[in-house]
Amino acid sequence: METQLDILKKKFLLEIENSQSLKELDGLFLQMFGKSGEITLFPKNFSKLEKSELKIISPLFNQTKKTLAEAVRKRRGEVKLADFKKILQEPLGLRKISTDSLEKIKTKKRQGHTHIITQFEEEIIRAFSKLGFAQFDAPQIDSDTYNFELLNIPQDHPARDLWDTLYIETSEEGRVKSEEGENLNPGKLLLRTHTSNAQVRIMEKIKPPFRQMILGRCYRYENTDARHEHTFEQFEIVYVDKGLSMANLLYLSEYFFQAIFGYDVKARLKPKYYPFVEPGAGVDGLCIFCKGKGCKVCGGVGWLELAGAGMIHPTVLKNGGIDPDVYSGIAWGFGLGRMLMVREGIKDVRLFNSGDLRFLNKY
Ligand code: DAH
Question: Which domains does the chain have, with CATH numbers?
């Protein structure tokens, strides 16, 4: 009986060793330990045995049972690991991506375009280039001298109140001090409040006669609301020649309004104070909505104030080294956003700098 058990043990151990799948192992387990399994049924003949024989075979049988069960458990682990390694080595079966299929993938294209203000700048440049105006560049960070002083706006003069200014802190060396150490020029550097800061620079650089235009960013110390913005664009022309008059100014105004609003927009001048022009004028355009009849937009007046202008003040000409007895000059300027708001019916000036695509993509 001992030999029989040994044969059985060896046979099953070999089969367990050779099994290649969990399913095979499950079958073997049943074959040994199932209801009518060979191991299960083995003690069937134990009753015929002598007591002494039983004493030997019983522990041997129990040991064999344990060995076989342990062999199955161990082989299970090996088979599982082998299966797992096989899976790892198997190709995943992914399709190779060809350049062709990449092209088929649709991506949404978003194309940028120039900002509405830039588009308007190009329109203005085109209109005035036709009349022989050339572009001039002036700094956005400027001295109080060019932005105010040389434009006939002395320090502490009430006219400075017309421009709420953003001053820049200058270093100790940059400050002009009195003997007592008092700071005489606290606002030496500033962010230009208007493109008029170019006027005297132009006169210093270019000999008259000349026709120059300046376009660019200006800054004011403003609380923003629908009609006020701290950062905005202005346009300005400086035209110096012999014998210029307000008639030239009116012509230029009307030429421009018709270029951007349409041929039937008239211009009119009304007296207005700017320190650097004499006489100074507010330039009105016939209301583009009611054509003079009076409507909500123009407040029933029939006209809209669109620009500021005038004959350059003799003091300013002199500051630029030009003899006011020989030459006369026209200065004319406006805010781009303001004018676009009228033309395009834009209700809030803050939209221009908002970066809001719902607004920007309309233009
Ligand atoms: N610089 C003025 C402003 O910012 C606008 C202006 C008025 C420009 C009259 C001019 C002018 O050239 O003659 O309010």
Answer: 2-89 (no CATH), 116-360 (3.30.930.10)
